[in-house]
């Protein structure tokens, strides 16, 4: 059973180690957990539905609670406190494009607001109902979860848009193929959600971001069905796939997704290396990324994240041995950890591993530490979201944010973002633990993914107020650094105020015109991406 007020399955739990407890208390101070509301209490608060009875629409309290929020920290606080605010009036679970079209026709005629819902993993406020004057229908695609067709000659597969990551891979691998798209939310997020939010997988260096994988599909709109055909490439005007990529439910409901797949590689390995300091580590990963050695992934943790991860690993003896080993090679305080993946034939994997090790050594680092740390990373690659629960039970709130900038801006951007977070609660006398990694590397630049942890306040309202201070400070730092407001999480409501700085007046007005064409009465996820009409001053 999936948790109603947190991440993942009820049966999955990642307990905080004793080292984590001690570390957090020393860094942030002793904390006290806030009380959690019970599901029964929250369900009792749900008002009567304003939607009519319909075979496809569930109107009972629990299904409405379970689809009322996503997975952002404000969503987490709302669910844990039971102070959810607005609920959808009903949740529809269609099984076909035809049923989606039927629901949209009803919504259009009756003036309902429609919120498309995939895996419910949004961390930017994409799926939260805020409408109070009109009934709200959340349209879940959870039952549209099958591989619909596979063309092995063209390496194309078509899925129902509600297919979650594990089912995508399971159904493809039965035929010897893989999509290779593994965002951290992979366990729960869906192929349609990946397209709608422009997702990036952990191994996108090899397989590509979702914009490289998305080949076409079917969208149900208020005006009717829109099929986007698949081409290997086209010069026939603007690429209309781009209208759907990152559209976040504003244009229509994506029901079928055609993706580019490839045969499963015979060999895949993950390894960990270390560089002596941040400057050399940055130069190292930039050299690797710009020389295009063919890795499937490359990730660089800064010194604070490296130190924090080693402490939180819960294996003090093994960490001690590792640090002694590195110290003998001149890699001590300030060291930075590189994690990389190599995929292909056995010969290719061996060659790539040797090439990376050589580049790391040329930057004063240790090119390999054996296979154990790489295997640990694979085992834990989707477990990080579960730490929010463990930290919460200790009285700490944890959140992340991300951006991407050109290589020349990376060092200053990391400093500015981390400083904004680290100093954000100084007026309250509170310390914030902050650390960063570069999760995706490109020829031009890199993503920046920052995690921050702070103590819960004495109430949910105060804890949320602290988050708002930190989120605003960090978002302003991102914009000031010349970064995108989102590299992989999307815009939603949380990032919408900062989008005009990135898109400009013409860009925002162009988006508004497209949305008006498909949704003249603002019934499809209103307020997402582009919240209001934007003038020249607000976008400057």
Question: Mind explaining what this structure looks like?
Answer:
By secondary structure, this protein is an alpha+beta fold. Helices cover 36% and strands 19% of the residues. The chain has 19 helices and 17 strands. The protein has helices spanning 18-28, 39-43, 61-66, 73-81, 97-110, 165-173, 191-197, 204-207, 210-213, 241-244, 278-291, 303-312, 316-327, 346-362, 372-380, 387-394, 410-422, 460-480, 499-518, and strands at 57-58, 90-92, 113-117, 136-140, 147-151, 156-160, 177-178, 214-221, 224-228, 253-260, 262-263, 267-275, 297-301, 336-344, 396-406, 433-438, 445-455. The strands form 4 sheets. It has a 6-stranded antiparallel sheet, sandwiched between helices. Strand 8 (214-221) and strand 9 form a beta hairpin. Helix 17 (410-422) packs antiparallel against helix 18 (460-480). The radius of gyration is 23 Å and the shape is globular.
């Amino acid at each position: 059973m999936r948790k109603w007020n947190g991440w993942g399955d009820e049966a999955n739990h990642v307990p905080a180690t004793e080292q984590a407890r001690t570390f957090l208390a020393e860094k942030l101070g002793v904390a006290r957990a806030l009380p959690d509301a019970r599901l029964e209490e929250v369900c009792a608060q749900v008002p009567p539905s304003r939607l009519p009875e319909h075979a496809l629409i569930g109107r009972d309290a629990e299904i409405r609670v379970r689809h009322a929020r996503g997975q952002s920290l404000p969503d987490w606080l709302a669910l844990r406190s039971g102070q959810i605010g607005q609920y959808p009036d009903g949740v529809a679970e269609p099984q076909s494009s035809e049923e989606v079209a039927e629901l949209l026709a009803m919504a259009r005629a009756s003036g309902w607001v429609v919120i498309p819902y995939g895996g419910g993993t949004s961390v930017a406020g994409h799926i939260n109902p805020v409408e109070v004057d009109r009934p709200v229908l959340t349209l879940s695609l959870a039952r549209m979860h099958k591989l619909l067709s596979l063309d092995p000659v063209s390496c194309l597969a078509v899925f129902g848009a509600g297919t979650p990551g594990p089912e995508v891979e399971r159904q493809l691998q039965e035929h010897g193929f893989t999509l290779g798209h593994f965002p951290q939310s992979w366990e729960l997020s869906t192929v349609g959600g990946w397209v709608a939010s422009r997702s990036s997988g952990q191994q996108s260096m090899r397989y590509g971001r979702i914009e490289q994988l998305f080949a076409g599909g079917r969208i149900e709109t208020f005006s009717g069905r829109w099929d986007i055909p698949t081409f290997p490439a086209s010069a026939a005007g603007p690429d209309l796939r781009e209208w759907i990529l990152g559209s976040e439910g504003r244009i229509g409901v994506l029901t079928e997704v055609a993706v580019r797949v490839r045969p499963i590689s015979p060999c895949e390995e993950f390894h960990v290396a270390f560089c002596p300091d941040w400057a050399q580590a940055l130069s190292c990963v930039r050299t690797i990324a710009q020389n295009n050695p063919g890795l499937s992934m490359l990730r660089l943790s800064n010194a604070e994240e490296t130190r924090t991860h080693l402490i939180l690993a819960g294996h003090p003896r093994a960490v001690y041995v590792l640090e002694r080993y590195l110290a003998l090679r001149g890699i001590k305080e300030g060291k930075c950890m590189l994690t990389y993946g190599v995929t292909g034939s056995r010969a290719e994997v061996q060659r790539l591993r040797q090439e990376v090790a050589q580049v790391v050594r040329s930057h004063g680092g240790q090119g390999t530490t054996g296979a154990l740390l790489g295997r640990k990373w694979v085992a834990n690659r989707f477990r990080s979201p579960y730490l929010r629960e463990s930290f919460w039970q200790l009285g700490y709130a944890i959140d992340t944010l991300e951006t991407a900038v050109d290589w020349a801006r990376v060092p200053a951007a990391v400093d500015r973002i981390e400083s904004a977070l680290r100093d954000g609660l100084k007026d309250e006398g509170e310390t914030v633990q902050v650390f960063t990694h570069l999760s995706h590397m490109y020829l031009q630049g890199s993503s920046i993914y920052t995690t921050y942890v702070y103590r819960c306040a004495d109430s949910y309202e105060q804890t949320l107020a602290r988050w708002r201070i930190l989120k605003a400070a960090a978002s302003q730092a991102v914009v000031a650094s010349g970064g995108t407001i989102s590299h992989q999480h999307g815009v939603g409501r949380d990032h919408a105020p900062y989008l005009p700085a990135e898109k400009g007046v013409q860009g925002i007005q162009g988006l508004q015109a497209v949305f008006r064409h498909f949704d003249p009465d603002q019934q499809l996820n209103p307020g997402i991406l582009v919240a209001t009409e934007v003038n020249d001053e607000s976008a400057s």
